Amino acid sequence: MKKSILMVAIFATAYVQQTFAQNISTPKPSELLTSYYNIKDALVSGDANSAATNAEQFVKTINSISSEIIHESYKEVLLKDAGEISDTKDLKKQRATFSTFSANMFALAKEVKLNAEPLYYVYCPMKKATWLSGSKTIKNPYYGNTMLTCGKVTETIQ
To answer: What's the mean pLDDT in 70-79?
Structure first.
């Protein structure tokens, strides 16, 4: 009797530990958004190396998110965009790709709740391009310090 209780306790403990470990190591859509914001912030500051590194992290994160959470069609286009940003240290090329990347992230954000906080969709009329922000404060990733506050919030996703 004591052996069977001990065996049940061991199996239960192992199961709980395994389930807990899986929950910790499984990336969530909010981590994807954090990686996106890190790329945006690097572009705002004009740091091409950081943008490339953060784009690599984005690729790792999206590859580890289940297709049940993010559909393969979204994954494919976002992987392409992030891959292009990570493959170059040319800030102009990164910023050009970021426009498409942001449009694709916006489409994903309309389909999948990426986090509990509002997302702001910002438009730059000079570049005719958009990006996502976690704040209403404008920090333009396309022009950096040259035109840091160029843009306006055009939509909010709750």
So the answer is: 95
